[in-house]
Amino acid sequence: MPCVGAIVRDDRGRVLVIRRGTEPGRGLWSIPGGRVEAGETSRQAVVREVEEETHVRIALNGLAGVVERDGPGGVVYVIEDWFARVEPGTDPRAVHAGDDADEARWVFPDEIEHLACVDGLVDALRGWKVVP
Questions:
Q1: Tens digits of per-residue pLDDT, 40-85?
Q2: What CA–CA distances, in Å, run from 93 to 69, 79, 90, 109?
Q3: How far is CA 68 from CA 65, 81, 84, in A?
Q4: Which residues 6+ apart lie within 8 Å of 92 measured at CB?
Q5: How many Å apart are CA 78 and CA 57, to the nearest integer?
Q6: Catalytic residue flag (residue 103)
């Protein structure tokens, strides 16, 4: 199943994270993202998903990498994670949870490993040099 995620940074170097409000991973922290809808590119999907989950508009900087995660019922999520920044003219202080997120907030990269995160997130972010 094609999915996307965004590693969004603000001008202070913080990363945008969400606490998942739905399964899989309900209650755990992740980066914003979700499924790619029919007729949508992954770039379109990640911009849409971040805005739906956090009310933050983003501009993409490039592909961070692709990971695969097992889901319920034998589903495999193929997730394209993108580097992004807050779109000019968007106030990063306006972040708040929406759609599938129970909470959204900015954290410094070294704080991420101390959150209860979805499986594999910290390792992926470490591999992409997002967290120390």
A1: 999 999 999 999 999 999 999 999 999 999 888 899 999 999 999 9
A2: 31, 27, 9, 18
A3: 10, 11, 20
A4: 10, 11, 56, 86, 106
A5: 23
A6: yes
- What's the pTM? 0.92
Which of 9, 28, 35, 5 minimizes the C-alpha distance to 95?
9
Task: Supply the pLDDT for residue 61.
Answer: 96
pLDDT of 94 above 80: no
Supply angle C-alpha 47, 118, 82, rounded to 5. Answer: 30
- Is residue 61 within a helix (H) or strand (E), and if so which, with residue range? strand 58-70
For residue 36, pLDDT over 80 is answered with yes
Give me the catalytic one of 40, 52, 103, 113.
103
| Distance (Å, whole) CA 87 – CA 32 | 15
DSSP type of residue 32? S
Cβ contact 94:55 at 8 Å = yes
What's the rounded Cα separation, in Å, for the pair 94 and 87? 13
